[in-house]
Amino acid sequence: MGFFFTLLALVVLLGFTWRYLGSYMEAIFNGRVHFLGFVERPIYRALRTSPEQEQTWKRYAGAMIVFSAVSLLFTYVILRIQGSLPLNPQHLGAVGPALSFNTASSFITNTNWQNYGGETTMSYFSQMGALTVQQFVTPAVGVAVALVLVRGFARKNSPTIGNFWVDITRCLLYVLVPIAFLFGIIFVAQGAVQTLAGTVSIKDTLNGVSQTIPRGPIGFMEAIKQLGTNGGGFLDANSATTFENPTGLTNFLSMYLLLSIPVALTYTFGKMVGSVRHGVALLSVMVILFGVWVGFTSAAEHQNNPAVAAAGIHSTVGNTEGKEVRFGDTTTALFGISSTSTSTGSADGAYDSFTPMGGFGLLTGMMLGEVTPGGVGSGLYTLLIYAIIAVFIGGLMIGRTPEYLGKKIQSREVKLAGLAALVMPITVLVVTALAVSLAAGKAGPLNAGPHGFTEILYGLTSQGNNNGSAFGGLTGNTPFYNIIGAIDMLIGRFGIMIPAIALGGALAEKNVVPESLGTFRTDNGMFVGLTIGVILIIGGLTFFPAISLGPIVEQLSHMRFF
Predict the structure, then answer these.
(1) For residue 362, what are the contacts with CB-CB under 8 A and spacing of at least 6?
(2) How confident is the model at residue 562, as a pLDDT?
(3) Cα separation of 242 and 246, whole Å?
(4) Which helix (H) or strand (E) holds 209?
(5) pLDDT score of 561
(6) What is the pLDDT of residue 558?
(7) Any idea what DSSP says for residue 207?
(8) Within 10 Å of residue 512's Cβ, how many Cβ atoms?
C-alpha cells in the first residue's frame, strides 16, 4: 500500500509541477520574469553581454564549449591542490591526477560518477567550492541546450537562437538556486547533516574501539544533487544513508525533485512553440515508458532473491538484499528507476543486489537515452531528437516531406538527429568492448560470468549516458577506468549537445510550412506510439546483444531454481 500511495502522490504532485513550474520557466526564458534584474545586470556587464545580444548556433556552441572547458580545468585544479586549501578538517591530501580528471569530467558533464568515497577523499572546500558549484551550473547548461532546440521550432527565418550566458544565468537565478535553497532547508529540518565542524569520534565502551563518524555540509548539497539530476553524494553510501536521506519524506522529495524539471520542461516546450498539445505528446512518451519500467522492475524486486530461494529460504517481502528497511523493495525500485531514467544516478539501495531483471530495468532505462523523462534539459533535447527521427519515418510512410511544428525535416536535420542519437550507443559499446578485452578492464569486476559483465556494462553505460549511478562490484578507481570513463562521459555529453545546438540553428533558419490535409499529425496518439517505437528500436536493437550476455543470461541461469 505504501508503494502505491507513494506513486500516486508523486503523480499528483508532478502534475501540478508540470503545469505551474513549466509555465514559470517559459516566462523566465522568454524574458518576462526579471524580478532579480538587479542581480542579472551586473552579471551581464561583467560578461560584456546582454539579452539583446543573441548568438548564432556556432557562437552559442562555442560559448558552451569554452564555459565547460574552464569548468573542467577549475574543478581539476581544485582537486589537485585541495591539501593546501582551507575547510579541510580531515587534512586530506591532493587527489591523484587520473581520479581528478575523471571526477572533473564527471561533474562538468552532469554525470557525477564517483570513483571515490566522498568522506575519505574530498575536503569540505572541494565538495562545496568545486563539486557543488558544478551541480548548479551543469544542469543550467543542459537547459540552455534544450532551449536552443525549442527556439529552433518556435522561430522562423532567424539566424540567432538566444544567448548562452543569459540562458544559464536565468536558469540559475530563477530556477535552480531558489528551489534548491528551499528544499535544502527542508532536508536539514528533517535531519540531514549540515555542519563545518568536522568528524566526530565515538568510543564503543563495550568493545573498547573508537568509530569516526564523517559529517559535513551535506543537507544543501543533497537538494541540488536531486534537483539538478546530478546524483553525486557527499557520502559514499549516497541516499542510502540517514545523513543524506534521513526520512521517508526526504526519500519521496528526492524522487520528486529529480523528476520535476525534466517533466515540467515539456510544458515549457509546448508554451514556447505555441502548442501545449505537442508538449503533452512528449510528456505522454515519457510517462508511458517510465510507467512500464517502474512496473516490471518493481515486480521483479518483489520476488524472492533466486540465490536465497535456492537455499530453501522463501521471503514474503521480496528481495530485501541491499535495500533499506525504511523504504522496502518496491519503493527502492521506484527510486532506482526514477534515478536511472533521468540522469541523476543517486541511489537509496545497492543496485548490485537487485534481481537480474531488476538490474535489467535500471540498465535499460539508461540505454533508451534517458528520455523517460531524462535529465534537466538533456531529457528534452534527446527526446526531441528521437521525435525528429519519428517524424522522418512518418513522412516516409505517407510519401511526403516530413514536418514537425511546421518545419520541414530535410537531409541536414535528419543527419544531425541521426548523429546525436547514435553517439551514445556507439561510444558505450566501443568502450565496453575495450574493457572486456583488455586485462586492465577485466580486473575491475568483482564477480565472474554474466553478473561481472553486467558490472562493466552498467558502469560504462552509466557514464556514457551521464547518469552516474553505480551498479557496484566494479573497481573503478584505477588509471584504466578513470581515463576511459572520463572519455566516455565527455563524448556522451558533448557528442549529443553540439549536434543538438546545430539542429536548433538549422531549424530556426527555416520558415514555417502551412499545415495541410496531408500533414502528419505530431500531437496525437499515433505520433506518441511512433516515437516510443523509435526509442525502443534504437535502444533495443543496439544494445540487445550486450544485454543478452548480462542480465538476461543471468536470469535464465537462475530459472533452474524454480
Answers:
(1) 297, 336, 337, 340, 351, 354, 458, 469, 471
(2) 42
(3) 4
(4) strand 209-213
(5) 45
(6) 73
(7) T
(8) 15
Alpha-carbon distance of 135 to 217, in angstroms, equals 14
pTM: 0.95
C-alpha grid cell for residue 449? 560470468
Cα–Cα distance, 350 to 335 (Å, whole number): 12
Q: How far apart are CA 46 and CA 38, in angstroms?
A: 13
Do the beta carbons of residue 392 and residue 385 sit within 8 Å?
no
Q: Which three cell numbers stand for residue 498?
A: 553540439
Structural domain boundaries of the chain?
2-247
Q: How many CB atoms lie within 10 A of CB 497?
A: 27
Q: Which helix (H) or strand (E) holds 415?
A: helix 411-437
**What pLDDT score was predicted for residue 560?**
57
Which residue from 15, 11, 36 is spatially nearest to 169, judged by alpha carbons?
Answer: 36
Q: CA–CA separation, 279 vs 430, rounded Å?
A: 35
Mean pLDDT by 10 residues, the chain (562 residues): 87 97 97 93 95 96 97 97 94 96 97 94 96 97 98 96 97 98 97 91 78 91 96 93 95 97 98 96 97 94 78 77 88 95 92 91 92 94 96 84 91 95 95 96 90 94 94 91 97 97 97 82 93 91 91 81 44
For residue 142, give the C-alpha cell. Answer: 543542459
Residue environment code for 269-283, b if the CB has 16+ CB neighbours within 10 A, otherwise e? bbbbbebbebbbbbb
Grid cell for residue 541 = 536493437
Q: How many CB atoms lie within 10 A of CB 4?
A: 9
* Three cell numbers, residue 120: 575519505
DSSP string, 438-475: SHHHHTSBSS-HHHHHHHHHHHHHHHHTT-----SSB-
| Whether residue 51 has a cis bond before it, omega within 30° of 0 | no
Spell out the long-range contacts of 524-529 with Cβ–Cβ below 8 A and sequence spacing 24 or more: 524/281, 527/281, 527/387, 527/390, 527/391, 527/394, 528/281, 528/284, 528/285, 528/288
Q: Say which residue the cell 519503493 belongs to.
A: 331
Residue 220 and residue 346: Cα distance in Å, rounded? Answer: 15
Neighbours of 236 (CB within 10 A): 16
CB 216 within 8 A of CB 234: yes
Residue with cell 569540505: 124
Which pLDDT value is given to residue 400?
A: 78
- Angle formed by the axes of helices 356-367 and 276-301, to 10°? 160
> Can you give the C-alpha Rg of the chain in angstroms?
23
Residue type, 162: G
